[in-house]
Amino acid sequence: MSDRRALLRTLPAIDRLLGSPLLVKLEQTQPHILIREAAQTIVDDLRRQILDEQATLPDLDLEAVARLVTKQVAEMARPSLRRVINVTGTLLHTNLGRAPLCSDALQAINAIARGYSNLEYDLEKGQRGKRFTHIEELICRLTGGEAATVVNNNAGAVMLALAALAGGRSALVSRGELIEIGGSFRIPDIMAASGVDLVEVGTTNKTHFKDYAEAINSEIALILKVHTSNYRILGFTEAVSGEELASLAHRHSMPVLEDLGSGLLIDLTPYGLPREPTVREVLKTGIDLVTFSGDKLLGGPQAGIIVGKRDVIDKLRKHPMARALRIDKLTLAALEATLRLYLDPQQALAQIPTLKMLALPASELQRRCDALLPKLTVSIGDAVDCTIIAATATVGGGALPLAELPGWVIALAPKTMSVNTLVTRLRHSQPPVIGRVQDNQFLIDPRTLNNDDEALLLQAMRQVLNQD
Ligand SMILES: *Cc1c(COP(=O)(O)O)cnc(C)c1O
Q: What local confidence, expressed as pLDDT, does residue 467 receive?
């Protein structure tokens, strides 16, 4: 022990370390504050290792320590928010940023971000304008709504609508729709936070028209309908249609709000997805207001889109929460560009990554696997067994829970390490690779693998499998 303690004196002092040639050179490219902090961290680490009888003694040579600091600085200087390669096959992975944007959206962001814009300036009149005017007409054209507005995300859209239409009063919700979406979006909590009292009607599996009708009294300001995006109640079930709810609500001079979650602008049944009403079809039932996300099946940026009757939308715009939830100009630019593609559904399907990936037929995925397999075999064939197997992908993001997208994946069984080690190393590679494991194999689903990322994937695979 005393030998080890004596060694502490040979640890370089921070200032001496900072004066070493390697770190003096590093100062030219990296902020001093990072280098100093890294030096402190490394010296503290070395001190711990020295005092730990079990640990092997570290190399305390000044240059060796400076090299450790350089490595630490490189890690600290790396952006925290980074791109990753998604081979999970889950199209809208909320943890991985949901929808990748189309190139029109990227161009729009670039153009608007680098300079000034008419964000809130009316170029016709030469006076102050409103930011939502840039997409209101477009949303109405695509959905048949009278008016529209957008906020930060769909959770915000629901909160704003509840607060503006029923704040301080009550709203009816079916017990079958009291859902949790994930994170902290739970309908009862969102209602409470909006200042709306929840009045539950019906049962978990069945809610009838009369359940709503009998619950209406002077305290009720709104009927809320919620899309059960991420689960289904199957079997002996009943829910009340939009038409019936709208007629009941209107008879009592109150609006119906439907939280659609994902919201579809075009019918996706030709691509094997379950039938879901489009936003246009929902509005046709007479529902006053619908809300949906920009970054779920729509395939755009994070946003909450609100569309419906003009007088109802006007109430939302006047509510103070509208300002707190407002959409920023980059999102607005990306959303407008994405929505424009929907004016021609063929363009939307050809350009929007989420829709393109969704529509990929199994035969195309098999072709991609056939093309990727020999490249993997050449790169890492010594370290893994690769086979092509049938597998289904999911939509994710709490949308279409029952949809299974049939396809093909490459299954890797590592020979030199456990599959868990492989997964961990891929997560730490540059860029990180995120996939799924099934039966002790790492699956590479080509559906969510961008063509341009193939070379990076191969490189990451080589790197992690050649480590010992
Ligand atoms: C996803 C979802 C939300 C939340 O939308 P965000 O855009 O993530 O805020 C709300 N309601 C339903 C039904 C959803 O599916």
A: 59
